[in-house]
Design a protein that fits this description.
Layout: E1 3-7, E2 10-13, E3 18-25, E4 33-39, E5 46-52, E6 58-60, E7 68-73, E8 78-83, E9 92-99, E10 114-115, E11 119-124
Parallel strand pairs: 2-11
Antiparallel strand pairs: 1-3, 3-8, 4-5, 4-9, 5-6, 7-8, 9-10, 9-11
Length: 125
């Protein structure tokens, strides 16, 4: 069973930093792309950031560019999202997603075939 398990969420003050982790297990294949999406209450799930597993190339939503960094640890099969200068607008459930699709779409949900259960991030002002 392939699992993606997010951790690191919590309640933080605006202006502070937080790092999320997504540990993957139960697979022998290599990811093509891994990503973070988020969903605020009453809103649609939106793309946050993605990383090409092999090359390390990164992709960011305009809303987080310059304040967030996605990275991966190949040996641990883990992807991270470091978020700095957090704003209340970042409050959402953050989901880890993985894709085995070669050349698949990076920015959309259906570009990924594996998903974690999500971790709550709440940014208070």
């Amino acid at each position: 069973q392939v699992q993606l398990v997010e951790s690191g969420g919590g309640l933080v003050q605006a202006g502070t930093s937080l790092t999320l982790s997504c540990a993957t297990s139960g697979h022998t294949f290599r990811w093509y792309t891994m990503a973070w999406f988020r969903q605020a209450p009453g809103k649609e799930r939106e793309f946050v950031a993605a990383i090409n597993w092999s090359s390390g190339g990164t992709y960011y939503a305009d809303s987080v560019k310059g304040r967030s960094t996605i990275s991966r640890d190949n040996a641990k099969n883990t992807v991270y999202l470091q978020m700095n200068s957090l704003k209340p607008e970042a409050t959402a459930v953050y989901y880890c997603a993985g894709s085995t699709y070669y050349g698949g779409r990076v920015y959309v949900e259906n570009g990924y075939n594996y998903w974690g259960q999500g971790t709550q991030v709440t940014v208070s002002s």
